[in-house]
């Protein structure tokens, strides 16, 4: 999963490990051991040499390890924005273009792109990412080909969703906080001022009932803000593990079950749900364009429908920005979508 591959070799340093005492018995054993040690040393040297060559040659095409990518992309407080991408979402004028456009036309959101890590699930998505000069990481999963549009709830779709959860756990373990965002979420304002400061796990909703701490809110896994801590790392392990108890369900459905689990209460995670006024979607649109930060093409089946409505959404936003400030404030403009969605 982690293409870095180097840390085991350089960090482990097999040859530097002193011999365990029980091996140092007879002279014969000692002799064997020295040979073994020499072989291991040679092996390590060759490995390190290969690693150096690999890293040198790959720096040209930016095929960096996760460690370097996170370091380059992170904000000073070690926060990154993460999205996943596969081939189906990179066609011209597709979801990913709209996603990037939103950062450009959003109000003071362009700087956030510097902190975006695109996790590519197939080669074409990875190549496309590199061409767009973003931070790109190629996440491979054994035995799965993510190239084609993974249709909702097929085994490949489920694997893709679960791979994502496991990957995010690794990011947390490396000490990075993240905002995970699906690429069908438009970023129109900086979300950070609207996050809660008293929880390490907050997540958007399909529909928000009014109380951020009410577990009955319906979470949407397409957007969440998670701070690295023992609790969140434990929680991501628990979430990933829980897939075994709910076979055939995706991460969001399982979250909807385990949010009530005593384990979550016992570790003191304190899940909070984000208000759709700021973090809206087609399920429950944020009605006031003066307040919206992000809009998600959720409650929408089919890529074409999503693209159709997201285009209109971005046009709505541009129209809104072109209004006089006093008109924006007094008329509280709203969306003309969903249309094809929902
Ligand atoms: C954009 O952001 C600036 C600075 O925060 C603010 O003064 C301005 O009102 C915002 N414009 C809109 C349309 O939200
Ligand atoms: C994955 O699927 C794509 C499209 O069907 C195909 O072109 C590619 O060769 C496949 N890759 C692997 C590793 O099977
Ligand atoms: C996380 O857990 C480790 C090991 O249990 C402990 O040493 C460390 O202090 C904990 N960190 C925090 C922030 O709680």
Automatic annotation (TrEMBL):
Keywords: Membrane, Transmembrane, Transmembrane helix. The chain crosses the membrane at residues 36-54. Residues 112-310 form the Nucleotide-diphospho-sugar transferase domain. Coiled coil: none annotated. It comes from the Eukaryota. InterPro entries: At1g28695/At4g15970-like (IPR044821), Nucl-diP-sugar_transferase (IPR005069). Residues 1-21 are annotated as: Disordered. This is Nucleotide-diphospho-sugar transferase domain-containing protein. It comes from Rehmannia glutinosa (Chinese foxglove). The lineage of its organism: Eukaryota, Viridiplantae, Streptophyta, Embryophyta, Tracheophyta.
